[in-house]
Design goal:
Radius of gyration: 23 Å
Number of helices: 7
Helix content: 40-55%
Structural class: mainly alpha
Order of helices and strands: HHHHHHH
Strand content: under 5%
Length: about 180
């Protein structure tokens, strides 16, 4: 290739690259939805993920709807969904028989004998989410604390660090469904 042609090709490639560097980020951001509030404070430790079926997705959407009804931000929905992923894998569990050492029920494994509500109430996704959120709102600084600490303060689990593993998936679920 002659020198003049080679320089021309390199010059055009350089202009294309420069244009992409400057216009690319602007064009890329213009296509993305504006997300004003961060939902993940800081994802801690190894993350788990499960594939959700239609029922689990509907339960996640019910948690998001109840969070909005309570007037709380996306972060509250992330904490709620991560908690439900840990407690029930987003399944609205009834009495588990011999597999259950307590009377835990619903999306959050809440117990009627601990004052969460009647079995009918805590197996209602909206009611159980609002009950969880009522407890969350009583935790000073829940908005900025690690997810697992906020969830544990409400749930009082025998496995206090287990909630952290679901933060990324919960964040992704909320990002996907919050504006729907």
């Amino acid at each position: 290739m002659n020198t003049m042609l080679h320089k021309s090709v390199l010059g055009i490639a350089g202009l294309a690259f420069t244009g992409g560097v400057f216009a690319g980020p602007i064009a890329a951001h213009a296509a993305e939805p504006v997300h004003t509030a961060p939902v993940a404070v800081s994802v801690q430790g190894a993350q788990s993920k499960i594939d959700l079926n239609d029922e689990q997705t509907a339960n996640a959407k019910a948690i998001i709807a109840a969070t909005k009804k309570a007037g709380l931000p996306e972060r509250a929905a992330v904490i709620s969904i991560a908690t439900s992923l840990q407690e029930s894998k987003l399944e609205n569990l009834g009495h588990l028989g011999d597999k259950n050492d307590h009377d835990s029920l619903g999306l959050f494994q809440q117990r009627p004998t601990s004052g969460w509500g009647s079995p009918e109430q805590i197996t209602n996704p909206e009611y159980s989410t609002l009950a969880f959120l009522k407890g969350l709102k009583q935790v000073d600084g829940w908005e900025s604390m690690p997810l697992t600490d906020a969830a544990q303060t409400v749930q009082v689990s025998a496995y206090p660090d287990a909630y952290a593993q679901w933060e990324q998936q919960a964040t992704d679920i909320v990002a996907q469904h919050w504006n729907n």
